[in-house]
Amino acid sequence: MAMQTELIKIEREHMSLSAMKRAGKILRAGGLVAFPTETVYGLGADALNEEAAQKIYAAKGRPSDNPLIVHIADMEALDRIVEQAPETAKALARAFWPGPLTMIFHKKECVPMGTTGGLSTVAVRMPSDEIARELIRQGGGYIAAPSANVSGRPSPTTAQHVYEDMNGRIPMILDGGPVQIGLESTIVDLTEEHPVILRPGYITLDMIRSVTGEAEMDKGLIADDSSVHPKAPGMKYRHYAPKADLQIVEGPMEQVVSYINRQCAVFGKAGVICTEETRGRYLNGDVKCIGSRKDERSIASHLFAILREFDEDQVERIYSESFDTPGLGQAIMNRLLKAAGHQKIDVSVR
Ligand code: AMP
Ligand code: MG
Fold first, then answer.
1. H helix runs in the chain, sequence order
2. Cα within 13 Å of Cα(152), Cβ side
3. According to a count of CB atoms within 10 Å of the terminal CB, is the N or C end of the chain lower?
4. Quick one: which H or E segment has residue 96?
5. Ligand sitting nearest the alpha carbon of 66
6. In DSSP terms, which residues pair with 344 in a beta bridge?
7. Best substitution site from 68, 108, 162, 191 to test ligand 1's pocket, by max atoms within 8 Å of Cβ?
8. Looking at residue 13, what is its pLDDT?
9. Three-state secondary-structure class, residue 11
10. Which strand (E) or helix (H) includes residue 103?
11. Would the CB of 261 count as within 6 Å of ligand 1?
């Protein structure tokens, strides 16, 4: 029989301590609680309790070799779960924690293999969201939490998205409203000689270099073919696949708009991902505005919600403009390309 799922509204400014304590108690007893972070909603379990962490895989339908990120609320917690955090990690923590940065370390014995997908390394993040921080404290200090979606669906950016995917599978969802950033954290590997970005996010390569000097992107992320495998296990899965076939259209804006218009005139059930700058120029189809090109954060924060909306609208094809902006653009395109199964067309060469 399906479990009853409680959805509780939490006010960030005046948090209900009794609700937070109840959530913490579920975690300490080995149960699951979904909660907001500044990046996306997470599905939490006690990271040091192997059985609890395993429940996350079951609820999400997540492959068991895909490791979890351990969330902490203070620096003392870091030293208890990792072997010798290098000086670069401490500098990165001072610059970006609490915040949307995950770092990979050699793990200590107390972190079970069931949390790290069998790896001897562990991913750690200190989120800035106050609800997340309070829940981590109430839940025992170490909360494993991947995104709170069913595996393969877009990451949830509202409690409603979590409810769609997790209703009946977990006992509690904390509703803190829409998240701020809307893309998962940047992941940096600190077990190599220089920091290596395994997953792009809000914290960019340039921001990391400004602290550590040297840093690079994982070769598997930038390779256009599939000859180099990404180092982060999760990056090999096709995430965020919408039900419709998604194609990214690149090129000069005039040509992009007219190409998409021509396609939509032919296909009955087509969707379009456009921007404030172009929204008035699409004539047919289910047109959704993702944000403004002048504010790349607006684009990042709406991407996953829009992919979910298209699933509901039951369109058969989606055409998206491309978003290669300087800062967050890399992270946005990384997620969009995965959603599109790397289907991309350049209309400038036609
Ligand atoms: P999610 O929490 O769903 O955003 O996924 C966490 C992702 O972090 C995983 O899919 C991995 O790609 C990455 N990750 C977690 N732990 C490690 C690790 N020890 N080494 C490399 N990548 C990791
Ligand atoms: Mg995820």
1. 17-28, 50-60, 75-81, 87-96, 113-116, 130-138, 159-166, 205-212, 219-222, 253-266, 296-313, 329-339
2. 7
3. N
4. helix 87-96
5. 1
6. 248
7. 68
8. 94
9. coil
10. strand 101-106
11. no
Structure-token pair, residue 38: 């500044």
Ligand 1 atom closest to the CA of 198, numbered from 1: 22
* pLDDT score of 69: 98
CA-closest residue to ligand 1 atom 21: 232
Tell me what pLDDT residue 27 has. 98
- Rounded to whole angstroms, the Cα distance separating 9 from 176 reads 6
Question: Phi and psi at residue 81, in whole multiples of 5°?
Answer: -115, -10
Report which of 250, 252, 246, 348 is spatially closest to residue 307, judged by C-alpha positions.
Answer: 246
**pLDDT value at residue 186:** 98
**Tokens encoding 321:** 């403009």
pTM above 0.90, yes or no: yes
Which residue owns the Cα nearest ligand 1 atom 10?
A: 234
What per-residue confidence (pLDDT) applies to 65? 87
156: helix, strand or coil: coil
Closest-CA residue to 57 (of 144, 161, 162, 173): 144
Q: Residue 172 and residue 6: Cα distance in Å, rounded?
A: 5
- Kindly list the averaged pLDDT for each block of 10 residues, start to end, along the chain of length 350: 90 96 98 98 98 96 92 98 95 98 98 96 98 98 97 95 98 98 98 95 97 92 66 69 91 96 90 97 95 96 96 94 89 94 85
* SS3 of residue 173 by DSSP: strand
